[in-house]
């Protein structure tokens, strides 16, 4: 597996394969890899001739009070995992390579970024949209693979790539879960054993929403109230940012469950903020 350290090296690597007619899959990550990330690599391996991963903890998507400094960094372990999966190359840029001194250009994210995470984490999606566009320019792949666990992020990236006519296909990949239902996340490492148990309330609340939808319940208020109740049950989560049901494409609020919809949750267990989602219609 090649380690690409500069944008020039990364662009040259991808273009050399593109010029030979090969499809190239891009798997952007911030490292601290788990089975969810590796499932993206496997999906890319199945669909594309060549797979390139990136590891870059992007500072512009963290707010001033968020966990940038303590975000887990396990570079050598991550590279071992990627090589074991047959990844052709990994791009490992420095902060300076991505944001040179005097950098001042950012991407204004699309409308789908405005609510939910956009309200809870101001500026977050500006950083996400900017870094994904930069990676798409540096590594002009044919496909890029993103997990559905970060559902709103997926919709933001899809809209940004479409609106700015970026010639790369964003491929959504299913959320990978632990056996007990907890969505895999690099931030799960922060959880104590007790908090790990508390965190299961997210997947249980989503299952409750799906159960109600499957039973024919159409009232959004009823479903959201049931989700909130489930999140707080049995020494549940410590704080809820949102537990809501929205249009599956626009993420606009719904008053009635009569169109494709997704249930979305963001909640704190201790100081760790977790997100999860489930399509319910």
UniProtKB/TrEMBL annotation:
GO terms for biological process: pantothenate biosynthetic process. It comes from the Bacteria. CDD domains: PanC (cd00560). Belongs to the pantothenate synthetase family. Beta-alanine binds at residue 61. Keywords: ATP-binding, Cytoplasm, Ligase, Nucleotide-binding, Pantothenate biosynthesis. This is Pantothenate synthetase. Pathway: Cofactor biosynthesis; (R)-pantothenate biosynthesis; (R)-pantothenate from (R)-pantoate and beta-alanine: step 1/1. The active site is at residue 37. It is an enzyme of class 6 (ligase). Signal peptide: none annotated.
